Amino acid sequence: MSKRMIALLWATSLAAWADVAYMLFALNIGALVEPLHPLRLVYYALVFAAPALTFFPIARLIGLRTFGWEATGCWAGLVLMLTFMRPEAAGLPGYLAFTAALFGVVASICLPVGYAIGFKLLTLRVHRRDTGRARREAYLAALFVVLSAAMNMGGFLSALNAVLLALILVLIESFALARKPGEQAP
Hints:
The protein is an all-alpha fold. The chain folds into two domains: 1-84, no CATH class; 94-180, no CATH class. The chain contains eight helices and no strands. It has helices spanning 3-26, 38-62, 67-84, 87-90, 92-121, 125-128, 131-154, 159-178. The longest helix is centred in the middle third of the chain and has 30 residues, at 92-121. It is flat and about 55 Å long. The relative contact order is 0.07.
């Protein structure tokens, strides 16, 4: 892809996210009762288009085929959920859907960041382009955020609990990094 095309994609993505924010905060789209109202239909399309325009080019750049679909679905689900329903009103299924969408959103933010950091810092070519490592680290970061949120909802999140959770996840990542690339667990 040319640099001009990439710049056009990013500008379109930014405009779509700005339209989503405008419709959410200025027009208060969540207050519309009719599900097939024309403004809501435009909002639905924008909620799916904005993450698609953001994450499909990143997925192509990194080389992960499913990342664009995963990120688009999680971002659209979280934004639609926060716009039109409250998780506490839906009970346990609402909390589980919110937690799954939050996990995917945090992972979709952390995966490209982890891949870029690994690409710059790691010296071996095998490790530099390791999308599995970046995905694993993104999932661990998302797990930390989701478990911290769950502990907060349960009323037992403290600094010590958060540090211990982080240490456990860092230990898991250390064990995973200690294996040689391509080595299978016994």
